[in-house]
Amino acid sequence: MIRMTVLGILCWVHAAAAGTHSLHFFGVATSEGAGFPEYVTVDIVDDVHISYYDSTMEKPSLRTNWMNKTKGREFREKLTWYILYSQETLKWSLRNTVEHFNHTGVHIYQRTGGCELHDDGTRRSYSSHTYDGKDFISFDVETMTWIAAVPQAVFYKHQREADKAWQQISFNFYRQECFQLLEWYLQYEMETLQRKVRPAVTLIQRKARESAGTDVICHVTGFYPREVEVNWIRDGEALLEEGVWSGEVLPNEDRTYQLRKILTVSPEDQKKHSYSCQVDHASLDEKMDVKWVPEAALTMGFVAAGVLAALGLIIAVIIGALIWKKRASGARSPDYTPAQTKERSDASSNSSNSTNGDRCDSIAEKLMTQTE
User: Fold this and answer.
1) Which of 190-199, 217-226, 338-347, 363-372 has the highest mean pLDDT?
2) Where does the record place the region Disordered (predicted)?
3) How is 273-328 classified by DSSP, letter by letter?
4) pLDDT digits over 278-321, tens only?
């Protein structure tokens, strides 16, 4: 449960609405013995993963080149300070909650927070916490109060509100510094955020698992921005929904995205209709249509014949190698003479070897002939 929760957060990507830019933070603290770093955090601007840090690292890893230059130094220092500060607060939150409930074993404490800038000038910021995967408490930035999601979180609310210095740090960050970080990032990375990358589309077919039909996978990958529309079309007109399974839009390592849509086609429909995968994306001047051409299935007889022919060839090669080795070993120097003792035994052995050699030659020739 813990591992899946953490991995889910690391793979989560925020889909910002048009005209909205956002900076989001995700942190997870885990008890000792979980087999995972005690603290993990990732930060995302719009759809771009900008930083990663866990408690096994000396410092956070930030994924933008301009942060290494003078103009990005203040951004780096401020974001790094907040990441390390959040590590201490989240580990304290987990330890304090576990002790309060007198829990044992492995537990997790998660925090999500961030800020959004909308095109109409409005702003929004938030911070919410969960304990063992369930809503626990959240921070109201406007009133500087903590709101307990469950009665068990009231003790935490009182502890946090009693620490005025801690309250002020949280208030300042979510009211000012989060937006400042976001604005800096947008200023220096607008070219990256506004780029458009054309998708690549591949169709892959396989036998359906639960029917006699065929699954056709439309794999769309390498596109940016994240928003994309992928549909299966029948006979160039009908948009299909029944028999279609859609995956989630997932991030690639190069900051592009991928999506799969799978269509299941019965043998009867495959003969009567044509199908194509249609993709609509901001990088395209017009919708892309990729037609599915069913692959010809190999018959079992053809496959079996191919396997037998391959086996025959392998056996022939092995036997041929043995014959060559035998003949090569028999080509001794002229002054070689067999031992004079045990003449009958040697004569019998030589006779047997000669017979076996002739037999091998005969088998090899037959196999070669059959294979050819």
Assistant:
1) 217-226
2) 331-372
3) --EEEEEEETT-SS-EEEE--PPPPPPHHHHHHHHHHHHHHHHHHHHHHHHHHHHH
4) 999 999 999 999 999 998 543 333 333 344 444 454 445 454 55
Query: Tokens representing 280?
Result: 């609509």
At 96-134, the pLDDT tens digits run 999 999 999 999 999 999 999 988 889 999 999 999 999
The token pair at 154 is 């009231």
Q: Are 65 and 73 in contact (CB under 8 A)?
A: no
DSSP code at position 346: H
CB atoms inside a 10 Å sphere around CB 310: 11
- 343-371 vs 300-330: helix axis angle to the nearest 10? 150
Strands 244-246 and 238-240, sheet pairing: unpaired
Centroid of chain to Cα 140: 35
Mean pLDDT over 20-37 rounds to 90
CA distances from residue 131 to 53, 62, 150, 229 in whole angstroms, order as listed: 21, 28, 11, 36
Task: Dump strand ranges (E) for 55-173.
Answer: 61-62, 108-117, 123-131, 134-140, 145-148
Q: Do the Cβ atoms of 218 and 232 come closer than 8 Å?
A: yes
pLDDT tens for each residue of 221-256: 999 988 999 999 999 988 999 899 999 999 888 889
Q: How many CA atoms lie within 13 A of 101 on its CB side?
A: 16
Place of tokens 């995972």: 36
Q: What are residue 110's phi and psi, to 5 degrees?
A: -120, 150
Q: Which residue has the higher pLDDT, 88 or 311?
A: 88
Distance CA 175, CA 172 (A): 5
Q: Which of 194, 175, 172, 188 is nearest to 74 (CA)?
A: 188
Tokens 């910002």 belong to residue = 16
CA nearest neighbour of 114 among 122, 123, 105: 123
Percent of the chain with pLDDT over 90: 56
pTM: predicted TM-score of the whole model, two decimal places = 0.61
Closest by Cα among 118, 124, 174 to 146: 174
Exposed (0-12), middle (13-18) or buried (19+): which is 331, by Cβ within 10 Å?
A: exposed
Separation of alpha carbons 130 and 109, rounded Å: 6
